[in-house]
């Protein structure tokens, strides 16, 4: 499995550390809504098909990236810096 | 269908083995049942068997999307053990071992349960302390555990690297003598045959495509072979749990599906007579009766439904194998395969009513589902029949995450790839 790091180019999956689902939304840190925190910490969409997920390129540039990957075929559909997505108001860890 | 016995073996041998009957009927789905069990793996079949035998509920169908035993019941490394730390786990898995001990007799089917013991190798004094603590917990909970010194292990399992060059020197090991292995296919076939004889319909090649509902209540399933109504719908679908939940309208669930690989080498002469696990990494190995070394290691570590993994993990597992048993370096690998694990958020299973009315759920086995098969089926059947949990599965609720009552053996937190 090759992951196309936006900084380093395509690299072997061994260079990356998997950080899991990238669609979770962390509640406001001041929130005391138990259900919202429970959903953030424990619940996952776990799709069979395209999955947005965090990887870190620990054996390379150490960037956190968001990869879209098909969980049925392991085909990587795209990758982008997590910080860019976060700055655009997207998902954050 | 006749009982299997020495006499029936002899009779069929004399007639050239031409008169054996299929072990279970190829049932056609009926329009309605008392209980429909989705998933014809070990847990689903065991549940059907205990529903019929313990609770007298025989209007039961087991729906399997492929052929019987095509999922994780036929993909595991066949290990049975109850060497756990937490009281909830010890109680549950030790109950399971007790059912295993009489399973061949109860099913009238030889599941080849072999109590050859499992040996967890410790490679540092800290790891030894941790294992001894676990052994004490096991004994306290009514189980069995023995601490073996380095010297005793060298005598018992001579293949382990005890040379001064060993990368991970063995300090000692925790042995559970009652643990062992079983023939995994036979477990599926044995439960299927025994359930079938009690009137359960086992329907293969029947994939569930949706749920029938009245309001919130689940009243049956839509399948590739037509709609089937049911008083109770029970799910035992392992890695496909999230997919079924989505069909029921539940988009997020505390399960991640991960791929786990397993391996078997060419057959060799008797080499290891117990299950051995490597504490320097994560590896478990035993030798099958046919002679192949059967082993596996960690998950690949990312969400997957592919039933196959990648090569980096293969390399890691092989290097651990060679570090532990140097003589295996020259063996050829016969097969490798993958299965989809239903990794829960605390590493423990979920056996419960709900989450919707009319639905019952059995999932979250991570990669320890095989050994649990009898206790899982027994307690799930109890939960379905009585609408309340058996004492052994009462802690394994779905609500425990919200209540903060997680059962996290390794203290890893909600990171499924680490369980």
Query: How much of the polypeptide of chain A forms β-strand, as a percent range?
Result: 35-45%
Query: What is the class of chain A in the CATH system?
Result: Alpha Beta
What oligomeric state do these chains adopt? heterodimer
Helix proportion range of chain A: 10-25%
**Of all protein chain pairs, which has the greatest interface, and how many residues does each chain bring to it?**
A-B, 26 and 25 residues
Largest beta sheet: strand ordering of chain A: 3-4-5-6
Mean pLDDT of chain B: 96
Overview of this protein structure:
Chain A: It comes from Chelativorans intermedius. Chain A: This is Sarcosine oxidase subunit delta. Chain A: InterPro entries: SoxD, SoxD_sf. Chain B: It holds the Pfam family DAO. Chain B: Its main location: cytoplasm. Chain A has 93 residues and is an alpha+beta fold. Chain A has helices at residues 34-42, 82-87, and strands spanning 2-5, 9-12, 17-21, 50-56, 64-70, 76-81. Chain A has one domain (2-87): Folate-binding superfamily (Folate-binding fold). Chain A contains 2 helices and 6 strands; from the N terminus they run βββαβββα. Chain A has a 4-stranded antiparallel sheet. Chain B is of the alpha/beta class. Chain B has 2 domains: 27-82 and 85-107 and 184-254 and 346-418, FAD/NAD(P)-binding domain; 118-180 and 256-344, D-Amino Acid Oxidase, Chain A, domain 2. Helices cover 29% and strands 26% of the residues of chain B. Chain B has helices at 6-14, 42-55, 87-101, 103-107, 125-140, 150-156, 184-197, 241-247, 311-324, 369-386, 400-403; strands at residues 32-38, 60-63, 79-80, 118-122, 146-149, 172-176, 180-181, 201-203, 208-214, 217-223, 226-235, 255-267, 275-278, 283-287, 292-303, 333-344, 350-353, 359-363. In chain B, strand 1 (32-38), helix 2 and strand 2 form a beta-alpha-beta unit. In chain B, helix 2 (42-55) runs parallel beside helix 7 (184-197) and helix 3 crosses helix 10. In chain B, 52% of the residues are buried. The interface between A and B is medium-sized, with 26 and 25 residues.
């Amino acid at each position: 499995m090759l992951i196309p790091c936006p900084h380093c180019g395509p690299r072997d999956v061994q260079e990356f550390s998997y950080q899991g689902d990238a669609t979770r939304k962390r509640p406001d840190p001041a929130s005391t809504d138990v259900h919202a925190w429970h959903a953030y910490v424990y619940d996952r969409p776990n799709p069979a098909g395209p999955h947005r997920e965090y990887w870190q390129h620990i054996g390379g540039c150490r960037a956190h990236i968001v990869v879209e990957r098909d969980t049925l075929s392991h085909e990587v559909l795209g990758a982008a810096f997590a910080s860019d997505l976060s700055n655009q108001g997207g998902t954050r860890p | 269908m006749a009982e299997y016995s020495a006499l029936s073996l002899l009779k069929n041998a004399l007639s050239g083995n031409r008169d054996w009957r299929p072990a279970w009927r190829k049932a056609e789905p009926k329009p309605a049942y008392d209980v429909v069990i989705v998933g014809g793996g070990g847990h689903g079949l065991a549940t059907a068997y205990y529903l019929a035998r313990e609770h007298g509920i025989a209007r039961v169908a087991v729906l399997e999307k492929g052929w019987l035993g095509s999922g994780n019941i036929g993909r595991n490394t066949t290990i049975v053990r109850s060497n756990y730390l937490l009281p909830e786990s010890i109680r549950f898995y030790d109950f399971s071992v007790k059912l295993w001990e009489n399973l061949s007799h109860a099913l009238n089917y030889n599941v080849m349960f072999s109590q050859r013991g499992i040996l967890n190798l410790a490679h540092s004094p800290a790891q030894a302390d941790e294992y001894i603590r676990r052994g004490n917990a096991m004994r306290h909970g009514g189980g069995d555990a023995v601490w073996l010194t380095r010297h005793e292990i060298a005598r018992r399992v001579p293949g382990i690297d005890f040379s001064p060059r060993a990368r991970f020197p063995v300090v000692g090991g925790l042995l559970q003598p009652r643990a062992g292995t079983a023939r995994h296919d036979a477990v599926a076939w044995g439960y299927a045959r025994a359930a079938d004889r009690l009137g359960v319909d086992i329907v293969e090649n029947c994939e569930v495509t949706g749920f029938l509902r009245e309001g919130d209540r689940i009243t049956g399933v839509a399948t590739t072979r037509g709609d089937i109504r049911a008083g109770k719908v029970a799910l035992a679908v392992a890695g496909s749990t999230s997919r079924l939940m989505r069909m029921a309208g539940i988009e997020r669930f505390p399960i991640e599906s991960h791929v786990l690989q397993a391996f078997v080498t060419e057959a060799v002469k008797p080499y290891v007579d117990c299950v051995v696990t490597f504490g320097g990494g994560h590896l478990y190995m035993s030798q099958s009766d046919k002679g192949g070394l059967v082993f596996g290691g960690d998950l690949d570590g990312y969400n997957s439904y592919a039933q196959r993994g990648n090569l980096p993990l293969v390399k890691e597992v092989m290097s651990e194998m060679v570090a532990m048993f140097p003589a295996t370096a020259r063996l050829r690998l016969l097969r490798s395969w993958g299965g989809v694990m239903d990794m829960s958020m605390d590493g423990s299973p979920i056996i419960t009513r709900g989450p919707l009315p009319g639905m019952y759920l059995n999932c979250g086995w991570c990669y320890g589902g095989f050994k649990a098969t009898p206790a899982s089926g027994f307690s799930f059947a109890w939960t379905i029949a009585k609408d309340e949990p058996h004492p052994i599965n009462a802690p394994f609720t779905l609500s425990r995450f919200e209540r903060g009552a997680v059962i996290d053996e390794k203290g890893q937190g909600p990171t499924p790839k680490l369980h």
